TrEMBL record:
GO terms for biological process: peptide catabolic process; proteolysis. One of its GO terms (cellular component) is cytoplasm. SUPFAM superfamilies: Leukotriene A4 hydrolase N-terminal domain, Metalloproteases ('zincins'), catalytic domain. It is an enzyme of class 3 (hydrolase). Its cofactor is Zn(2+). Its EC number is 3.4.11.2. Keywords: Aminopeptidase, Hydrolase, Metal-binding, Metalloprotease, Protease, Signal, Zinc. PANTHER family: PROTEASE M1 ZINC METALLOPROTEASE, PUROMYCIN-SENSITIVE AMINOPEPTIDASE-RELATED. This is Aminopeptidase N. PROSITE patterns: PROKAR_LIPOPROTEIN.
Length: 577
């Protein structure tokens, strides 16, 4: 999904997996009676007491629509589990919706037994709730309309070029509660989901998982979709339009088979097929580099949307108008597809660790450029990312954070670009064997994944550090301390005289940083142990290049100067207008 500063993302041939709210813009554009509450507009953060011990084994979601009035009708049944009894229940749902009926264990409750004043539905009863328990909610209303999806979350009620309805959901920043009752936390993922989406004749509903059946009625069709593994909450997606379908059966390098399906509007068949034909090579790349496609029991799914894109599990949103970048592939589709591994198979257990989604996912683009075209494309792609690193906040705070804390009050784009460069430097430091083994293990929970021997996992930064330390047999906490838990980059101090050149690292607060450094002297590369300053003998005519292969992420004044130049140029252009 794209996050703020689209011009920068497009220019760097990168798109992140998340959206920027632009909440202040949205609030100004909406009437007060339609405002979503602050509680609804947050995702993650502190866990509500009545939700702390709950898990969802199954979500049964039914949707129908009044397209003329832009009304969504929903019926959600959640199967809830907890190890302890509790006096009440709560789930999240935007107050824009009117709750028409609510049942607990098939018992219809009177309105006096539940409330939804701020976006959290509270349910009380006279005796303790025991589990498993089924909570069913029937509701309807006009869902939040995004001002600029996918940066701003909600339900889009658009029209296709032919004038047909074109509906799409995009809710990562604000969460699943924008259109279905859920627990808007990473741990709120339902283990399985059934989606029943009823649409007028002539429209197609594309969603997550496998298409079980299409129930045809006189004037409407119901598309029944089903997932069979833990499902990212904001990844539940509705996509409705007069779609045409392109599909093929893919044979994985692991020997299993699954469908690749693209739901697209009628259009340029040549462009549509060109995009579709990119997918097999992308899948094979990820399987060779990381491991098996995680959702082979369902499908690889792409759907054309009126917004730019988002990583909806098994039905990735795509709206990039069939653009290819300088490396010859559709960078947006590749990045969103990377989130099937980094975000959907591996889910951070708190928004604070979103770099595990976005940094690892962003590193897949230089890696894919290298896979396709070699080292020149790899370094070019990395350099494009390097221009966007900000270094104003640590990538990880080790605090429980809301999504907006990460993007608007925290590291923001650094979870993408800096996260990618951290992975690049780590790969240099520990070597490909330990690096890719560690990535596999954090993604799958095993360093030897095969279809059928893994399921989605929840992990955090410390889990990754522990895995890297174990696979290298070293204590590399110093590496992650400097790069993830502190904002300033290490500086390389170089002192040259006529007879010697000395190298030393300088870090924020004097943090230890024994990063080895390659130095080329007249083409001969020396590897220095910089746990303390090191000196090399030279003559005045020697050519000395520090880090000649650009392996180490470090402070470089040229990037600061470039940003200042770009800002000044932008200011002058604005003044001319």
């Amino acid at each position: 999904m794209a996050k703020r500063i689209l011009a920068l993302f497009t220019g760097l041939a990168l798109l992140g997996g998340c959206t920027a709210h632009g909440n202040s813009q949205t609030v100004k554009a909406e009437s007060k009676k339609e405002l979503s509450t602050a509680y609804t507009l947050k995702s993650g953060g502190d866990i509500e007491p009545l939700q702390k011990n709950l898990t969802i084994s199954h979500a049964d979601l039914s949707f129908s629509f009044d397209f003329d009035s832009e009304i969504l009708f929903g019926l959600t049944a959640l199967t809830l589990h907890s190890d302890t009894q509790q006096q009440g229940l709560s789930v999240d749902l935007d107050t824009r919706f009117a709750i028409e009926k609510l049942w607990v264990n098939d018992t219809l409750l009177p309105p006096s037994k539940y409330s939804n004043s701020d976006g959290q539905v509270f349910i009380a009863q006279d005796q303790l709730f025991t589990f498993p328990a089924t909570l069913k909610i029937q509701y309807s209303g006009h869902p939040r309309t995004p001002i600029r999806a996918p940066w701003d979350g909600g339900v889009m009620w658009e029209k296709t070029p032919s004038g047909a309805p074109w509906l799409a959901t995009a809710v990562q920043g604000e969460g699943c509660d924008l259109f279905w009752p859920c627990i808007d936390q990473p741990f709120g993922e339902p283990a399985t989901v059934d989606l029943r989406i009823t649409v007028p004749k002539g429209l197609v509903a594309a969603s997550n998982g496998k298409l079980v059946e299409v129930i045809k009625k006189e004037d409407a069709d119901t598309f029944h979709w089903q997932t069979v593994s833990l499902h990212n909450t904001y990844g539940i997606a509705l996509n409705i339009a007069p779609y045409e379908v392109m599909t093929t059966e893919f044979t994985s390098i692991y020997g299993n088979h699954f469908p690749i399906t693209y739901y697209h509007l009628p259009g340029d068949t040549k462009q549509i097929k060109a995009l579709f034909d990119e997918l097999p090579q992308m899948i094979t790349f990820f399987e060779r580099m990381i491991g098996p496609y995680p959702f082979g029991e369902e499908k690889v799914g792409i759907v054309q949307t009126p917004h730019l894109g988002m990583e909806h599990q098994t039905i990735n949103a795509y709206g990039n108008d069939y653009k290819k970048d300088e490396y010859g592939y559709d960078w947006l589709m590749q990045h969103e597809f990377s989130h099937e591994w980094f975000g959907n198979q591996l889910t951070n257990d708190d928004w604070d660790h979103m770099w595990l989604h976005e940094g690892l996912g962003s590193y897949m683009q230089p890696l894919y450029a290298q896979y396709l075209h070699g080292d020149l494309a790899y370094m070019s792609s990395l350099n494009n990312q390097r221009k966007g690193i900000i270094n104003q906040h640590p990538i990880v705070s080790n605090k429980r954070l809301k999504e907006e804390d990460v993007y608007e009050n925290g590291p923001g784009l650094d979870i993408y670009y800096k996260g990618s460069w951290v992975m690049h430097t780590l790969r240099y430091l520990i070597g490909d064997d330990a690096f890719f083994r560690s990535v596999k293990e954090i993604v799958y929970g095993t360093p030897a994944p095969k279809p059928g021997n893994f399921s989605p996992v929840f992990k955090n930064t410390q889990d990754f550090i522990d895995i890297v330390n174990r696979n290298t047999g070293q204590d590399l906490d110093w590496f992650f301390d400097v790069y993830l838990y502190h904002a300033p980059l290490p500086k390389l101090l170089v002192t040259r005289t006529d007879t010697s050149v000395t190298f030393a690292w300088q870090t924020d607060s004097g943090l230890p940083f024994p990063m080895p450094l390659e130095v080329s002297v007249n083409g001969k590369v020396h590897t220095l142990d910089l746990s303390s300053p090191q000196q090399l003998p030279i003559t005045p005519i020697d050519t000395v290049i520090a880090d000649p292969a650009s392996k180490v992420l470090r402070y470089e004044q040229r990037y600061v100067d470039f940003k200042e130049y770009e800002a000044l140029k932008k200011k002058k252009l604005a003044e001319k207008k």
